[in-house]
Structure formats: C-alpha cells, structure tokens
UniProtKB/TrEMBL annotation:
Protein's cellular compartments: Membrane
Family: Belongs to the methyl-accepting chemotaxis (MCP) protein family.
Boundaries of every Methyl-accepting transducer domain copy: 224-453
Name assigned to this protein: Chemotaxis protein
Cellular-component GO terms for this entry: plasma membrane
Domain of life where this protein originates: Bacteria
GO molecular function terms listed in the Swiss-Prot or TrEMBL record: transmembrane signaling receptor activity
Keyword Transmembrane helix: yes
Keywords: Membrane, Methylation, Transducer, Transmembrane, Transmembrane helix
Record GO biological process: chemotaxis; signal transduction
Organism: Rhodoferax saidenbachensis
Ranges annotated as spanning the membrane: 17-34, 41-59, 65-84, 96-123
Amino acid sequence: MNHAKNLSSLAALGDKTLLVAIGGSCVAAILLGLQFVDSGLAIGVSLVLLAVAGVAFLFAPGTLVCRYVLTFVLVAFVALHIQLARGMLELHFGVFVVLAFLLVYLDWRVIVFGAAMFAVHHFAFDRLQAAGLGFYCTTEPDFLRIVLHAVYVVIQSGVEVVLAVQMSRFAREGEELSRLVAAVNQQETIVLGVAAIPTATPGGQALKATLERMGAVVASVRASASAVDVSCAEIASGNQDLSDRTEQTASNVQQVAAQMAELSETVSQSTAHAKQASELASQARAVAQDGGRVVAQVVDTMQGINASSRKISDIIGVIDGIAFQTNILALNAAVEAARAGEQGRGFAVVASEVRSLAGRSAQAAKEIKNLIGDSVQRVEMGAHLVAQAGSTMTEVVGSIGRVADIVHAISTASSQQVSRVAEVGNAVADIDLATQQNAALVEEMASVAGTLQDKSKALVHTVSVFQ
C-alpha cells in the first residue's frame, strides 16, 4: 500500500511537471503562431491539446493513461512548434527537452512511448512534406537527416531508459528505506520489529535484515539488562544482609576479644595460684615425708617398748616364781618350827612373816603381771595402730607426692595455657581487625552494588526505547 502510494505520488509529480511544460509549450506555440502569421492554427491546436491534457489530469491523475496522454500532448506541442516554424532545425531541440522531461516519471515505458511518437512524427511529416501536403518536419524533406535524428533520439531514449530503470530502482529502494525508517522512528520509541513491512530492493532487504538483527540484539540486551537489574537488586539485598551479619559478627568478635582478655587475666591468676599450690604441695610433700620418717621412728620405738614390756612380763614371771618358792620355803619353815616347839616359835613367826610377805609379793607380782599384760596388749595395739599410721602416712606421702606432681603438671599446663590464650587473643584480635576490614569492604561493595543497580536501571530505561 505504501509502495503504491509512493508511486502514485511520483506519478502525480510527473503529471504536474508535464502539465507545466504543456502550459509553457502552449504559450510558445501561440508566440510562434504570431511570429509566423499562423496564429489560428496555433491557438486552435493549443486549445485542443490543453483540453485533452486537462481531461486526463482531472479524471485519471497519476495513472499510466494520464502519463501517456500528457506525453502525447507534449510531443504534439513539439510537432506544432516545428510545424509553425516551418521545420526550423532549432526547434527540434524540443524533442530532447521533452525526452528529458519524461524522465521525471522514472518510467521507461513513457520514455519509449515518447520516442516512438517522435519517430512516427518525423517519418510521417517528412514523407508528407515530401508529398507537398503542407506539413513540415525540417526546412526541406530529407529522409537521411530524419534517420540521423532518429538515431540521436534512440540513443538519448536508450540512455534515459537505463537511467529511468536505475533511478526507479533507487527511488523504490529509497521509498522502502524511508518506510523502514518511518516505522522505526516513532514518537517516543524506536521500533525494530519491521518483519511485517515488505521489501523487494537489496537496500531495503539489507536494512530490514539489519534492523531485525538489531532487534534481536536489543531484545537480548534488554533481557540481559533486566537480568542485571534483578541481579544487582539481589546483590544489594545480599550485601545489606551481609553488612548486617558482618556488623553483628564484629560486635560478637569484640565481645569475644574482651572475654578472651578476661580469660587471659583469669588464666594468669590461675597460673599464679597453681604455682603457689605447687610450692605448697612441695612443702606438704616435704612435711609428709618428715612425718613419715617420724612415724617410722615411733613404730620402731613402739616395737622396742613392746619388746621391753615382754621382758618385764618375763621378769615379773620370775618374781612370781620366786615368791611362790619363798612361800613354799616359808611353809616348810613353819612346819619345821612347829616341830621344834618353843624353840622354833621365833623362827615360826619369821617364817609366817616371810610367807605373808611372799604372798603379798606374789599378789603384787600378779597384779603387776596383769598390769604389764594390759600394758603389753595396749603397747601391741599401739604398735599396730602406729604401724597402720605408718602405712597411712606412707600412703599420704605418696598421695601428696602425686598431688604435688599433678599440681606441678597443672602449673605447667597453666603456663602453657597462658601463652596459648595469648595466641588465641592475638588471633581473635586479628579476626576482629579482619572483620572490621570486611565490614568496610562490604560497605564499599554495597555502594558499588547500588551504583551498578542505578546504572542497570538506567540501561533498562534506555533499552526500553527499543520495541
């Protein structure tokens, strides 16, 4: 439809151009008629030709029929000019002028039609002039000259036909390019979807293919820009979350650093206490070892007392035996004194006293023996208890030694823990510094992500112009 409209516009322009040329030719014909005293012919024929041209222009403008009619009228005016000038050669230039005017249609058919009309006119009027019928083509009939004129007309017509074809193609191509540009360049958008616009010329097809490729590229860019915009939004949101978590982590790391400092101080105090405990344990070990040696001496002493008590018990047994024998001897002495009568009375008294003394001695020895037995039992019990105390003291010494070793190990471990806690504190401080640096980096990334998001939105807005 647009192509037909463009051709119609071009035909209308050609019709108007030829109509102006016809008007000029009419004026020239009247002037020639007045010049060569044949104004009636000039005016009459001019009016007829003007009427024919006017009817064609009014009722069939822009059509092939109108082009043929206007071409015929313009050729007829050139023939009228030659006729009125009695075949003046200078007026034959009108042939070439008219052929040049016909190029405005960019239609080779009109050019060929005009050239054919001129050929018919020249050959017919030359032969009619030669017959003496009052028609003029040249000043005098000359068929060879007419043939020469025809050759020039054919040459010019051929060139114009080639130009018309080329220019028509260029015009169609320009028209297709104009339609494509008009379709692309809308008021607020650039529409690259030109698949519905028909093209036939190489330039139009190339531009259409280029626009379609651009449309595909822009669609891809639009999709990529939208994806970038969404990704930037996600990155910005993620960076915000990361920033919040980093700040929380930094706060937690600072708290851990403070707690590590307190722990380091506590461990240092524990190490000092462990050293003191180790020293006290060492002292307790020494005291326990001294106590063990004292208990061992007590055990030895108790064993000696036990042995002495047993010896005393044996001695008491000997004394008891002596008292028993003394008692027997006293009893024998009393019996002998009784036998002696008065003479043995004093001896009997002594024997009685000795017996009484022996009995008391035996009784005392018995009591002493009982006491010594109790003492021996108690000494044995004491010796047993002292032996148990010695064993317990030995175990205490061993336990205190082990406690001292454990306390020493704890002290050593505490000393090592101090250095390790210090290392952990330094590591936590490094983590704190790294976390703060990460927080700063996250803020920079958030700023960059925001800028990138703004740029992506601007790109999406820019690409949205293309449809």
